[in-house]
């Protein structure tokens, strides 16, 4: 597991999240711990190292 800090695309607060670095490619939705809005996370690891992280709002 890897702790990663990023900015919420809704409230702009810095939040932290534990990421599972044993799965090379992941895409899922997680609620912001501050404003509770849903964030779409796209994460990629290579050799257990984080190579891509993206946090997007899911508003249409």
UniProtKB/TrEMBL annotation:
It comes from the Bacteria. InterPro entries: UCP037225, zinc_ribbon_bacterial. This is CPXCG motif-containing cysteine-rich protein. It comes from Yeosuana aromativorans.
